[in-house]
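Hi C.,

You asked whether I'd gotten around to modeling the 230-residue construct. I have! Everything is below, sequence then structure, no commentary in between.
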Amino acid sequence: LDKYGKKMSKSKGNVINPDDMVGKFGADSVRTYMMFASPLEDEVVWNEENIVGVYRFMEKVWDEAEKVLKNKEASTDEGLISGLHMTIKKVGADIEGLKYNTAISEMMKFANSLKKASISKNDFEKFLKILSPFAPHLTEEIWEKLGNDGSITTSPWPTVDEKYLKKREVEMVVQVNGKVRDRLTVSVDVTEDEIKETALESEKVKIYLEGKEIKKIIFIPGKLISIVVA
């Protein structure tokens, strides 16, 4: 389907040439987008604006690889290890269940958490392995750049360490102009952007934002998200 929900056909003039998209965004981005855009059993709504988001995800992974190459002795931040093992388990289960869209979503979340965190070469390679079925070209190239022999596609799937899967959640208060409007239970590894998005989508919070202008949002990790409106 095109971005308006209409079936593509030559007569309607809304057919997308896949070669053009691969030339513009790369084969991995196009492949990953098609698996991310909707559940496997649903029709894919092709929206070029959305594929840009997948392309940026690929860029984030490449940029992280550059960081790892510059500092191969780096260690993984403690708060990131739990997230990595949860991601490995979730992606593995989603692939087995043919839930490719949610597997990709989970990897995108993990990639976002790398922005302000450090990850070791060994742990980054674990992430590359679970991304490999979706982005084989990108991950293969990075795999080689990191000095590995053989293909990433023949390397073993990373093992999940169960000790890192213990649920680690906190309750965060959501305030609007100083008054508590909701309480959210979130992972201790949740990013500031993720908790802001969740808070703003809360039905209990939305009713106090209608017709108001958000002046600022105050984030206190593990405790509070405070929205100031006028």
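If it helps when you're writing up: The mean pLDDT is 87.

Thanks,
B.
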